Amino acid sequence: MILVTGDIHGCADIGKLSAKANPVQKLMTKEDFLIIAGDFGLVWNNDAEDLWWRKWLDMKPYTTLFIDGNHENFNLLETFEEVEYCGGKAHRIGNSIYHLKRGEMFELQGKKFFTMGGAESHDKEFRELGTSIWEQELPSDEEYAHALATLEKNDWKTDYVLTHCAPSSIQHEIAVKLGLKNEYPDNKLNAFLEEIGKKIDYKAWFSGHYHTDMTSEIEPSFNVLFNKIVKI
């Protein structure tokens, strides 16, 4: 079984992963996966709170996977051991918690997942560089190049796409629906996702970031997740 949900922001929105809120987990094993579409936030200070909640996740019956969002401590995240995991590169955060790196292709239960984390913080003026916001929140040129190489290697085919933010056209649609037309300005990552979205062959695309649950009218296979947990 593979489940996908949106941001948990550390412990702020982790309640949706409780057994009461997500009872299907009782049927899962460590061979099953719950994927968080960015803003994991439990690699922030490595303090007692981070460690307690990561232990809580490790005790879940499933394996937790996440892509990075914008609200991550990237300097700390990059200190974790990098491992080969299910066909791609990941950081091992716990016994059964893995950060799926950008521009990778993973195979989970016979299904392919292309990952491209990152997003631009729209509240950056209220954050301090190196303390609550990091330059790595948007991909580097090397990460864009690696993502393209991965897609070429896989003939531009995958089953699922996992990103934190959305392609430009879909982000605009989301902003309009939420009445936040000036909240999410386009950037290089949105434009990149727009371009690869025209070429990549996929079944469904999942993102977080926008703190809402929505299916795009522009692309019906595009799912924005926050509280909702979707079974693939």
From TrEMBL:
Superkingdom in the source lineage: Bacteria
UniProt-listed SUPFAM superfamilies: Metallo-dependent phosphatases
Positions of the Calcineurin-like phosphoesterase domain: 2-212
Entry GO MF terms: hydrolase activity
Pfam family of the protein (one): Metallophos
InterPro entries tied to this protein: Calcineurin-like_PHP, Metallo-depent_PP-like
Protein name: Metallophosphoesterase
Organism for this UniProt entry: Ruminococcus albus SY3
Highest classification ranks of the organism: Bacteria, Bacillati, Bacillota, Clostridia, Eubacteriales
